[in-house]
Amino acid sequence: MACQCVCGAQQCSAGHHSLLLDSRDYWADVLQEGRPKETRCRCGGALFRVDLVYDFRDDGDVRSVDVSPTCCVCGRERAAVSFEIDYSPTAELISKPLDPIEQPWLRAKRCEITAYWQPADAERLASYLSGIPGVRIYRDSKGFEECGIEAVEFDPELKYDLYFTNVLELPPLRLRDPQRAAPLLRLTSPFHIACPTGIALLHYIEYADEILRGADVVSQPQPFLTFARQARAWLHENYLSQRGTHTADNPAEYERIVSLLRPKRDDLPRSSQN
């Protein structure tokens, strides 16, 4: 059994794989960080009996599930992992605790660019993308809805995640990170990174070149890939990639943040100043 946070996959003694509970919603994201390590007991055993203990709300929905593995070789119990459930309905967690999957290690290709920006930089990108013929903007504000660039307030204290696409008909969208399952380029509202004398605003620009459809990896529509790569080229033409290929920083903001994080000469150990 392999698991990370509240997401896990199991392989039975016959070699068949299953995802645990609602792990399918998160499994592709877990794989982007690399294949999770296989769980092993201190005795070296890799075969476990897995017990599920459900805790229910008053309305009958599942509040949480405790997953308790016990080694089939030595009988040692591992610490339980708790899955907190914050949605409804939850009947499938009981009727289908294991979700069979034939190829659990398939990974879809994605692009993620980080950017140290000021609010004007986010507005600049959004304006450029919205000006490309055929591109539409969506935002997640009490529901996924189309909007115009003039309706967006690029205030670093507000959440305004934006999604751009040039595809006319979108597939059904999942609530969590829809850009990872549909032809959408996402511009996040800024994450606030603490610095010694202030904050830095970090944006993410994300899209998927491929998506998982059932057990298969499928390429996104070619018009969308052309649009996404046009956006990526524009970022690299107009911003700094000093931190790495997948970065697009405002040069002045990059220098400011680096200077804030760089140790002052007076703060260095005496041996380092010689």
Record the SSE blueprint.
Elements: E1 2-4, E2 7-11, E3 17-20, H1 24-32, E4 48-56, E5 62-71, E6 81-84, H2 91-95, E7 98-100, E8 110-116, H3 119-130, E9 136-140, E10 144-147, E11 162-165, E12 185-187, E13 191-195, E14 198-208, E15 210-213, E16 216-219, H4 222-238, H5 251-261
Antiparallel strand pairs: 1-2, 2-3, 3-7, 4-5, 5-6, 8-14, 9-10, 9-11, 11-12, 12-14, 13-14, 15-16
Q: How does this model look, in words?
A:
With 274 residues, this protein is α+β, with helices and mostly antiparallel strands. It has helices at residues 24-32, 91-95, 119-130, 222-238, 251-261; strands spanning 2-4, 7-11, 17-20, 48-56, 62-71, 81-84, 98-100, 110-116, 136-140, 144-147, 162-165, 185-187, 191-195, 198-208, 210-213, 216-219. Strands 8, 9, 10, 11, 12, 13 and 14 form a 7-stranded antiparallel β-sheet that branches. The longest helix has 17 residues, at 222-238. It is globular, with a radius of gyration of 23 Å. The N and C termini lie far apart (53 Å). Residues 1-5 and 264-274 have low confidence and may be disordered.
Radius of gyration: 23 Å
Mean pLDDT rating: 85
- Which blocks of ≥5 consecutive residues have pLDDT under 50? 1-5, 264-274
Major β-sheet profile: 7 strands, antiparallel
- What is the element string, with H for helices and E for strands? EEEHEEEHEEHEEEEEEEEHH
Count of distinct strands: 16
Describe the structure concisely for a colleague:
The protein has 274 residues and is of the alpha+beta class.
